[in-house]
Amino acid sequence: MPHALKVNRELGIIEIRAFGTLKEDDMRETLGRLTAIAEVEGIKKVLADASDVVKGPTSTVAFDLFSHFPRDIRQAIYFGEQFPEEMLKELQFIEDVSVNSGHATMIFSNRDEALQWLLSDE
Predict the structure, then answer these.
(1) Cα–Cα distance measured from residue 90 to residue 119, given in angstroms and rounded to the nearest whole number
(2) Residue 25, SS3?
(3) The domain spanning residue 99 has which CATH number?
(4) How many Å apart are CA 9 and CA 45, to the nearest integer?
(5) How far apart are CA 2 and CA 12, in angstroms?
(6) Looking at residue 83, what is its pLDDT?
(7) Cα–Cα distance between 29 and 31 in angstroms, integer?
(8) Bridge partner residues of 49 (DSSP)
(9) Positive/negative CA dihedral, 62, 28, 106, 56
(10) pLDDT tens sequence across 80-109
């Protein structure tokens, strides 16, 4: 599975590290695990590191997954400086789908900016 999840109780967030090729089944499984952890831990903020992703989901899969992402979870996704242009477009699409569906999901170029937004009260 190209995802690793951990609870960061100090910051009050769930951290996801995604890497490699993201397949639909893996993403659905991770979403299920994330939702369960958020419910058990009472944590509704997610910081996702996508800097090691080499291939993301198709637009159809991204639309389906992120339009059904839990509305009460705030998510910041960040990527590294060497991120492929094609992947940036996919991340922007994910952000657009999420925002248009009423979710608080934003894309950032680095961890610090993502964490700052995630922990803000906006």
Answers:
(1) 24
(2) helix
(3) 3.30.750.24
(4) 11
(5) 23
(6) 66
(7) 5
(8) 17, 78
(9) negative
(10) 776 667 777 777 777 787 777 777 888 888
Whether 30 and 62 have beta carbons less than 8 Å apart is answered as no
- With bands split at pLDDT 50, 70 and 90, how would you rate the model's confidence at 42? very high
Number of domains in the chain: 1
| Residues 6 or more apart in contact with residue 43 via CB below 8 angstroms | 7, 12, 13, 14, 37
Is-contact 69 98, C-beta < 8 A?
yes
Rounded to 10 degrees, the C-alpha dihedral 99/18/52/46 comes to 50
What is the C-alpha separation between 39 and 41, in angstroms, rounded?
6
pTM (predicted TM-score):
0.86
In the predicted structure, residue 12 carries a pLDDT above the cut 90: yes
